[in-house]
Structures are given as structure tokens and as C-alpha cells.
Design brief:
Aspartate Aminotransferase, domain 2; 2 domains; globular; binds pyridoxal-5'-phosphate; seven-stranded mixed β-sheet; Aspartate Aminotransferase, domain 1; four-stranded antiparallel β-sheet; 364 residues; alpha/beta
């Protein structure tokens, strides 16, 4: 019985040809592919500009630089997320202030933001966790308090708000990752910064190129954060496939929802009303995560816990004032969120095998 993996990158003849043509062109950096990929993905997201870069982590760092956040500033971040959501704040010399997530959706809780707000709060990083859009109320809350909203959309290519806005077109700046396991990949490392603000667009493009203008004059601190042309060429082909892949992920998630409703010992993920979930991960909240993982593993099915150690408890934050803080929801769910495969390469039989294993774990 073949192992069912958590993720499987897509690779086809059109992507191969795009990569080879780009290599053959000898135009390997700073060329038309990166420019087109930025424009096409920005247009998909309803943003004014997308700037490809080397990773989602770099995109987050760049977003904070663009918003001129640095020492003395505080940035509100959920603790239940990938570590880069927090470390980007520390890397620009600002302080990440950790907040709890919503009990139903596991995204940052607007009530917790309000409790954590101080005069030094300059930004919020809302993570569209597992592909679920963060609460739209963050937009008005940020506007009311003059706080910037950075979307960490690393897991949310294609997610949509109730009004049909796409992830990436909601905040001041949004950040995507194209790591191979993500909904859209580029044949290696990659990321993108995205903005809907005209006033940030120009600086965003310059930031990945040492803050330089066309005359090679550096106006602000940047670095070489550029994406290679080959990666951008592959990403452009992947973007054409994204909607079809999302539909496949949605149909797998719908089958899971139908099969798991009413099972004892697990809670299925709840989708925020009227939104489109991008299903980067399908996480079950399990009463006995170890048993669920063992049953899956013995059926040759991969699974993962997200995120067993919340960011504030990681060793990198041993000296952070919130290192020993407790967060009611984060503490309750962090060891219990078991992700099962939901990617767009799963066959009907794969999905059936996963369903049978979960049902078995819940009935024994
Ligand atoms: C929520 C979140 N933010 C940021 C990142 C960082 O992206 P990258 O791995 O491309 O640096 C990831 C990647 O896993 C992520 O899941």
C-alpha cells in the first residue's frame, strides 16, 4: 500500500517547458518572468502590485520594512502559527506581542487584539491559518486605530472573504510563500509581497533590489531578495492551475466533512461563513491525537500536528516577557490539531483510505 503524503508538488510538461525556455533564454534574473508573475498574481488577488521574492519569511520581513516598523514598535501576532510570523518582527528590531486565537477558526482573535493594543502597536500580522481567512473585522479595527494590517497569506493562496476579496488584497501588505508544500509552488524556495496601496508599490519593487532606483541609487535599506526567473516562470504556470487545484481541495474537504460529521473524539474544521477556505491544511481537533496519528500511520498515511509548540514558547523567545504566558485557546488546541492529507493530487481511493482510517481511530 503506497504511503499517502501530506503534500505533493505539481510538475507537468508546461512547467518543465517554461523552466527550460527561461534557462535557454539566459535571462536568469531581473527579467520578464518575475515582472509578469508579480502582475498576474496581483491581478488574481485584486492587489495593485506583487513583488516576487525568495521566500514567505523574506516577504514578511520586507512587509515590516515597507511599513517602517522597527525598534520601539510592537506588532501583534498570533502565537499559533509558523515561527516566521513572529521572528520577522524580531528581525526588524520590533517586539512581537503574542495574542490568542479564536476558538472556532483558530485565526487571530480581534478581541485579543484589542486587549493587547498599546500606543506602541504599529501593526497586526493576521495569519490565514491553514487557508482560512482571518476575521474581516481586523480591517476596520486597524483603520480605527491607525494600525497597519499585514496578511500572512503563506497558506492561503485563493482564499476569499465574504465580500469576495481574495487573500492578499485585504491588508496593507500581504505575504505569500511558495514553499513546495504550499497550494502554489515555484520549483524551489519562493515568496511574494503584495500590496493594494499605490503609495507602497514603488518601494516594494525597490526593496528586493537594495532599495535602488533605475539609476542604481539606493534610497533605503534593502537587499537582494529577488526571485529567480526560472522560479517565476514555473509559478506563472502554476497560477493558471490554481483554481482547479482549489476545487479539488474543496471537494476532498467536503468528503471529509460528510464522512466525519458525528464521529466521536474529533471536531472537524469550521469554515467562516461566506468565505472560501483554501484548504492548505485540513486539521482535525482530536481528543486523542496520538491514537489518531498512530492509526493513520499504520494505514500508511502521513499526518502532522500544527503547532505543538506555539511561537511564544519556542526557545528563540526564552527571554520574551510572554514566554511563560498562557493563552486559553492556543494552549487548548496546539497539541490536538492533527492535519491529514488534503492536497490536490489525492485520488478517490486515497481519500477513502484516509476516511476509513479516521473512522477506525474514532470507533476503537
Ligand atoms: C503561516 C506561515 N508564514 C510564513 C511562512 C514562511 O514561508 P517560507 O517557508 O516560504 O519562508 C510559512 C511557511 O511555512 C507559513 O506557513
Amino acid at each position: 500500500m503506497e504511503r499517502i503524503a501530506m503534500a505533493q508538488p505539481s510538475w507537468d510538461d508546461e512547467m518543465r517547458a517554461a523552466a527550460m525556455d527561461t534557462l535557454d533564454s539566459l535571462h536568469w534574473v531581473k527579467g520578464p518572468q518575475g515582472k509578469a508573475f508579480g502582475e498576474e498574481f496581483a491581478s488574481y488577488c485584486g492587489a495593485v502590485q506583487g513583488t516576487p521574492c525568495q521566500s514567505g519569511s523574506v516577504a514578511l520581513w520586507g512587509a515590516l520594512r515597507l511599513l517602517e516598523i522597527g525598534p520601539g514598535d510592537e506588532v501583534l501576532v498570533p502565537s499559533l502559527t509558523y515561527i516566521a510570523t513572529a521572528t520577522c518582527v524580531s528581525l526588524v528590531g520590533a517586539t512581537p506581542v503574542f495574542v490568542d486565537v479564536e476558538p472556532e477558526y483558530w485565526c487571530v482573535d480581534v478581541k485579543a487584539l484589542e486587549r493587547a493594543r498599546t500606543p506602541r502597536t504599529k501593526a497586526v500580522i493576521g495569519v490565514h491559518l491553514f487557508g482560512q481567512m482571518s476575521d474581516d473585522a481586523i480591517v476596520s479595527w486597524c483603520a480605527e486605530h491607525g494600525i497597519a494590517y499585514i496578511e500572512d497569506a503563506a497558506q492561503a493562496h485563493g482564499a476569499q472573504t465574504p465580500s469576495g476579496q481574495m487573500a492578499g488584497g485585504v491588508g496593507d501588505v500581504a505575504c505569500f510563500s511558495f514553499f513546495p508544500s504550499k497550494n502554489l509552488a515555484v520549483g524551489g524556495e519562493g515568496g511574494m509581497m503584495m500590496t493594494r496601496r499605490n503609495d507602497l508599490a514603488h518601494r516594494m519593487a525597490a526593496l528586493v533590489n537594495h532599495g535602488r532606483d533605475a539609476r542604481l541609487e539606493s534610497h533605503e535599506l534593502g537587499s537582494n531578495l529577488r526571485m529567480s526567473e526560472v522560479a517565476a516562470a514555473i509559478g506563472r504556470v502554476q497560477l493558471k492551475r490554481l483554481e482547479a487545484w482549489l476545487a479539488q481541495r474543496q471537494s476532498v474537504a467536503a468528503r471529509y466533512e460528510g464522512a466525519f460529521a458525528g464521529l466521536n473524539g474529533i471536531t472537524t474544521p469550521k469554515v467562516r461563513a461566506q468565505t472560501r477556505h483554501a484548504w492548505h491544511q485540513y486539521c482535525l481537533l482530536a481528543d486523542d491525537p496520538e491514537k489518531l496519528q498512530q492509526t493513520l500511520s499504520s494505514a500508511n498515511i502521513d499526518s502532522r500536528i500544527y503547532y505543538a509548540t506555539p511561537c511564544h514558547r519556542q526557545q528563540v523567545y526564552a527571554d520574551h516577557p510572554q514566554h511563560d504566558a498562557t493563552f486559553a485557546v492556543t494552549d487548548e488546541v496546539c497539541h490536538r490539531l492533527v492535519a491529514i492529507p488534503v492536497h490536490h493530487h489525492l485520488s478517490d481511493d486515497d481519500v477513502e483510505r484516509v476516511i476509513q482510517a479516521v473512522v477506525r481511530a474514532c470507533s476503537s
